[in-house]
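Run log, item B.
One chain of 358 residues. Sequence copied directly from the ordering sheet:
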Amino acid sequence: IATSESGGVLAKSATMKSQTGNPQPRTWHETEKKLASLNSEGLPNAGIEYYIKPETISDTIGSTGKPYMVSISGHTLADNLKMLEMVAAAAKEDSRIEAVELNLACPNVIGKPIIAYDFDQMADVLDQVAALPCVKDGSLPPLGVKMPPYFDGPHFEKAAEILNKHKNIVRYSASINTIGNAFAIDLAAEMPVISSKGGFAGLSGPAVKYTALANVRKMRELLDQSIDVVGVGGVESGKDAFEMILCGAAAVQVGTTHWNEGPKCFDRICAELRDIMTDKGYGSVGDFQGKLKPWSKEGAAIARAAKKAREGGTKTETNGKAAAATTQGNDQQLMMISALLAVLVAVLLADKFGVVTI
């Protein structure tokens, strides 16, 4: 996977000790329109020591030189603090660990709440993280926080307030994790498709993209500019990646699409993103990142014209700029995208590396 056009590798969320997760079946993919997936995996993983071993990192990224990032999701605050110390110690010995993501958003651990929905608990977690010696001495790699989806204005504001308070240690916020407590039924058997938690599970796939876009947009508006936003949820095409970046994402993670399609999805998504950039006359990601335009009559007219052209089977200039591309231009755009990690795919590694999907 690391040899694809993925921008980096984010390992499976780790716990202190290895665990098998929830009973099977714990995943489900809607097959007719392929709009949704459910999972209630319960964080099956090989344990934190595995993910920070030099051998694991070498097997994962090889000689590609791509960023390797560790994700942690402890059962307790003490577990999370201990794992951060372990990551910091490992990073002192192996500089290939370039970031650590603290998962405050997992909805699928039986008996455990989503931390980032309990704002007092979320604030306490980050207060105690900030007090760690490895944070104070700068030995902890850059810290990101995986966030759940928010749906109410005051919740966005409170979450951003807590993250902004810790802008000196939080480098990025990843939005969103799965939408919790979704449900699907097997019509023939008249039962849930998921066995654990009474059938309730996290929703992912294209169905969550619009919620993800809203979270990326709102968090980008509310967070301090020193905190990057990573777009996650429903990304299956270059168009989806473009929209995430347009809403302000500095990077994009891909999960369900890799689950369904395999590593080739990264090459396809990057190629589609380059084509969109070429059609619009953009030479770099910075030309459109975070530059979503407000609704206007002029914009609506452009949208109608583009729709008419598509329905007529002709190609239109999507933003009024002449589309021009050369092989050299495409190569330059590829370098820009790779260098900026414009499509930083959170790669779900093969079973032989002991990393499984969330």
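Observations after the first pass:
- The first strand starts at residue 9 and ends at 10.
- The longest helix spans residues 77-93.
Flagged for discussion on Thursday.
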